[in-house]
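User: Before I run my own analysis I want an independent prediction to cross-check against. Here's the chain; please return only the structure tokens and, at the end, one sentence I can use as a sanity check.
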Amino acid sequence: MPSSNTLSLVSPPEGLQERVRQRSVPVGQVVAWWLGGAGFIFKTSQGTQLFVDPYLSDVVNDIFGQQRAFPPPLTADQACPDVLICTHWHEDHLDPGSIPIIARNNPTALLLMPPSALARAVSWGVPRRQITTLKAGQTLTIKDITITAVAARHNAGVEGWEVYDGVCLTLEIDGMKIFFSGDTEYDTSLRNLRNLDFDSAFLSMNGVGGNMNAHEAALLAWHWGVGTVVPMHHHLWLNAAASDEATLDPDLLASSYSKLGGIGRVIAPIVGDEIVLSRVTNGRAGHRFISNAGTTQK
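Assistant: Structure tokens:
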């Protein structure tokens, strides 16, 4: 039986696809919905739906015996992306149980992914014409979204699962700059992105499997001076990482960020719930932690 804490991270999944479809987004805003793990849907004011790293199956359970902690908030058959990005080929980011279905049901959708992910997707029957390779340093503009890939440093520590071409993302939408880490360790090359003046940062924080921990994510957010910080990749598996290096509580990131002097807002996401993003210049409204229950704490 899931713990009460686990349940508090997941909203009722009914009708997510319809809520996304019906949601009208004002100019100057982006709305995001968490799918769990590193998976998100972003919707723009022009109605563009961008899916990033959607894990909607339970295939990792078949491979590693690692079961999902909750049902997916929508199914692969319900997904209707205009653009879908997989930051690397690991199965909880390039989902063999979902990607072929999504591609088949949405033949005009454009899929972006690194070369090692492309090879796998094509072998699963995804049409090559739907896929565009995405490499570090590359910039693409699709509809109203400009996407730039930044090199990730991601070593999961599992033999045969090495990743050499994983990417982080910068998204420019309606004058807003959003950083999306995918899976990466803390790296000085990421610190050097400070001059990009990100408005929001979605940061992996689980601290294991080749990812930065909550303290490193807090340090990066503080260094950048972002207005909004969204922790991610801390809730997906039924049996959480047993390592004493794992950091799975967003409160830990918020606390470290506050102690560093961070003054942006930290939003702990709920699976299936929306997050409204807008421009917040260096978090001048003062530090806030917004819990998954929606409570704001000074």
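Sanity check: Residues 110 and 134 are 12 Å apart (CA to CA).
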